[in-house]
Amino acid sequence: MPDRFEILQKDLAGRIGRLSTPHGVIETPVLMPVINPHLQLIPASEIVRMGANMIITNSYIIHQDPKLRDQALEKGLHKLIGFQGPIMTDSGAFQLSVYGDIEVLPLQILNFQFNIQSDICVPLDIPTPPDVSREQAESELRLTEERLIEAAALDRSSLLAGPIQGSTYPDLREKAAGFLKDLSFDVYPVGGVVPLMESYRFRELVEVVTAAKKGLGSGAPVHLFGAGHPMIFALASALGCDLFDSAAYALYARQGRYLTVRGTWKLEEMHYLPCSCPVCQEHDQKELMESQQRIKLLAMHNLYVSLQEMKLVKQCIREGSLWDLLESRCRSHPRLLDGLKRLGSEGQWLEGLDGSRKSTFFYLSPESSFRPEVIRYARRIERLMLEGDVLISDDPEADTAGFDHVLHFKPPFGPYPAELSETYPFNAEVPENPDDSALKQAARNTKRLIEANPKARFSIRLRSLPESIGEK
Amino acid sequence: MPDRFEILQKDLAGRIGRLSTPHGVIETPVLMPVINPHLQLIPASEIVRMGANMIITNSYIIHQDPKLRDQALEKGLHKLIGFQGPIMTDSGAFQLSVYGDIEVLPLQILNFQFNIQSDICVPLDIPTPPDVSREQAESELRLTEERLIEAAALDRSSLLAGPIQGSTYPDLREKAAGFLKDLSFDVYPVGGVVPLMESYRFRELVEVVTAAKKGLGSGAPVHLFGAGHPMIFALASALGCDLFDSAAYALYARQGRYLTVRGTWKLEEMHYLPCSCPVCQEHDQKELMESQQRIKLLAMHNLYVSLQEMKLVKQCIREGSLWDLLESRCRSHPRLLDGLKRLGSEGQWLEGLDGSRKSTFFYLSPESSFRPEVIRYARRIERLMLEGDVLISDDPEADTAGFDHVLHFKPPFGPYPAELSETYPFNAEVPENPDDSALKQAARNTKRLIEANPKARFSIRLRSLPESIGEK
Fold it and tell me: Is it the case that residue B213 has pLDDT exceeding 50?
């Protein structure tokens, strides 16, 4: 099968990609609104107008309804739903995870998806939840893998998804991903993570997604199954997730909840509608509360804000400013900040993936000390070969007479050749007063540079000497 | 004159207020789009539909154009502009600051504003720019004050603005504000700050605005003259600014610039339009670039995003979450972070103003250690009267047998009575690992508590003992 996924641009572990499907080529990251085949809260035609170009629906629900099933087999999935772009179908695994049992066999529901011409078909796997015993995670993973081997062997014209399970065991996730990448799947959903997202366990989400990504390698498209709240799109995209699905837009609307990129409000507790989407332009809070169409209108707002955030994520990847967006977005909740810190601890992994073209480096918090550019420079600073008298100074006006080399000093980088001052990343915009995290990193780099150049004589002239210079 | 300004709700130094004018009552903070009397890039009627309910225009431009002047005197300002809500008028001071000279006398342009029934009239003051000598700042301030004394003595039915000058000298700003508050003005613009905002000198902006606010007291409405970029609305509102004016929506549009709450993009460098406003819903980036109406459409987007941010600021003030918004917004640029840090250093001032009803306290960065709730608790902790055996523990499962008092421990607060665990602010959501700033504050509070209770015997059992416990 030809390569279905092409990567156009990279930032952190995120990327702009192109995924080819039987019903068209889709730019990723992409948000697929979930459409209920029984009841379209927002009709597919309206969803297209709102800017969605790919959707996901549930093949199990269609299969279990004789009328829908016959129509789907007769006219095809796309005519049934009324959507001509790519459609992904879920398998009923979600129902399995909720009800413990479903009334269809794995190959039966997969072949049904093939027969109704779904663009991306998902085998019926076992979505193991977080926090189960290792034994359970392993045995369910074995069952999932058996089914996936069976699925991968089938003839198909659709794309096939290979879900990665493994509960909250990163090593199992990595192993599962490594196993699947050698089979012929087209898209890799990370499954069983909805409970992590629902309870804001974003550190662990970062852990399991990172593990799966490491096992898969960077070339494969990854679907974060059930990720529909716009507050996590930036973080999940930075981890290298390419496909997202949102039932959230409708589920939250039914609960009277208003989505924003910073979290969720109950509509009844709001005083204003701080949004420019058509719904929020045409209604104020009171009108929306009292509208007969409240659920649909809220769902529309929720979907607008979600599609908008995905566009912002893509814009930031294009210009290499995704970390800056994370600095804002992960300050919506302490658990998201935990997620960002966890991502920061993967500096070496990120550095290996991260593209090099960047907009200006902004130092925005202690977490900025863990950006790939900082890690990269820390690794390379020992390559600076210096001899004779070397001045390290943070004063651009310093008297440099008599020195063989002049290095400027800027936390978190520490010393760098003066002639690179206007070059990325050393032209970074930094706060007036560096924080401890930046100073420590600068001190570590200074020490490394000095140790790597035993023949040079260093003079350090800093307007405010960090106490930690010289410490490890 | 009856009290024109009523404060309904407070958060940090920000507030929801009601300002009464001859043409209606306005809820603050409010953004006044600037309308050019010669050429309405977006007609006033459209601006109303977009959600603006107050505007500002320039009386000097009207006065210098014989045709406009005659119409304004004959029909009144509101009919001339085509806007029936409150209109503020500027005096020509901006032209004075740009061209160095204008062709009208102070009382002449003020009386003209009264005569055309402007709702808020601005005397012709001297807008001293940043960084001038102290002598110049002082002498220009004296001239401004003479004119303001003269203005305040006039009969009027309009509201009168008393601009606060003083360049980048906080003590002059505070003195100027203290002087004006005893005269009968209705609104207090902080003037001469556009150059600070244009060059991202947000720390100094915080300094001069804070100084002006201290001089004025908390009851007076403050206008931040020339503040039109939505990236600073949250910070400026948190300082207690109530009125904002935006020429930025149109000026940036003429330069092909697209405003967002996180900064500005050149339209030509964008790949997507990450916004849900009607303009960005109806066009993609390419269509907008190529549109004959590009400048107007960009201006509309810029105004939509500005009005939207003001609604978000108000929503956050209503629910007491303005600091959380600052944590996100001030991570758009290191200079905004400098501004937030400067605001944090005004903890005592903020604590005196800040309302007490709050949503959950989120610890989101080292700057969260400077929130008013933290300052307040640090001041009150010595009032905890303890005797006998006291346990301080961060383990909810700790064995408390034999202790007379049990205190929980959570940075940045440090120890607090266990029975307050579910109470604001001790029910704070904090990161898994506290940062240095939180630990230092918690250690200081612990020390203070121990010193205030010499008769009690303290046992400290922390799962991870901060090194700094016991230090100052």
Answer: yes
* Residue B11: Cβ within 10 Å count: 27
Contacting residues of B for A308, CB less than 8 Å apart = 274-276
3-state secondary structure of A311: helix
Predicted confidence (pLDDT) at residue B395 exceeds the cutoff of 60: yes
For residue A213 the two structure tokens come to: 């990504």
> How buried is A297 (Cβ within 10 angstroms: 0-12 exposed, 13-18 middle, 19+ buried)?
buried
Cβ proximity of B227 and B235 under 8 Å: no
pTM (predicted TM-score): 0.95
- pLDDT number for residue A258: 98
Residues in a beta bridge with A164: A190
In this predicted structure, what is the pLDDT of residue A470? 43
**Average pLDDT of the residues in B237-251:** 97
Q: What is the DSSP letter of A74?
A: H
pLDDT for residue B355: 76
Average pLDDT over residues B302-312: 98
Q: Taking the CA of residue A308 as centre, how many other CA atoms within 13 Å lie in the half-sphere pointing to its CB?
A: 24
Interface membership of B317 toward A (CB under 8 Å): no
Active-site residue flag, A394: no
Structure tokens at A86: 């790519």
Q: Is residue A57 a contact partner of residue A37, using CB atoms and an 8 Å limit? A: yes
Reported as a single tens digit per residue, the pLDDT across A199-236 is: 999 999 999 999 999 999 999 999 999 999 999 999 99
Type of residue found at A271: H
Q: Does residue B315 surpass a pLDDT of 90?
A: yes
Q: Taking CB atoms and an 8 Å limit, are A338 and B431 in contact across chains?
A: yes
Compute φ and ψ for B192, nearest 5 degrees. 70, 20
Kindly determine whether residue A275 and residue B365, on different chains, have CB atoms separated by under 8 Å. no
Closest CA to A3 of A187, A139, A137: A187
pLDDT for the residue A1: 46
Give the model confidence (pLDDT) of B273-300 as tens digits: 999 999 999 999 999 999 999 999 999 9
**Which residues in chain B are closer than 8 Å to A366, comparing Cβ atoms?**
365-366, 435
Instruction: Dump pLDDT digits (tens) for A351-387.
Output: 989 776 667 899 999 999 999 999 999 999 999 999 9
Contact criterion met (CB below 8 Å) for A281 and B51: yes
- At B148, the amino acid letter reads L
Taking the C-alpha atoms of residue A425 and residue B9, their distance in angstroms, rounded to an integer, is 44
**What pLDDT is attached to residue A471?**
41
* Token representation of residue A4: 């279905």
The percentage of residues in chain A with a pLDDT greater than 70, rounded to a whole number, is 97
The identity of residue B311, as a single letter, is K
Q: How far is A223 from chain B (nearest CA, A)?
A: 22
Q: Do residues B5 and B186 touch, judged by C-beta distance below 8 A?
A: yes
At residue B223 the predicted structure's pLDDT band, cuts being 50, 70 and 90, is very high
The answer to whether B269 faces chain A, any CB pair under 8 Å, is yes
Q: Taking a C-beta distance cutoff of 8 angstroms, is the pair B29, B241 a contact?
A: yes
Q: Is A335 helix (H, G, I), strand (E, B) or coil?
A: helix
- What is the chain A residue with the closest CA to B360? A333
Strands B120-121 and B159-160: parallel
Task: Annotate A167-181 with DSSP letters as a single string.
Answer: TT-HHHHHHHHHHHH
Query: H/E element holding A414?
Result: strand A414-417
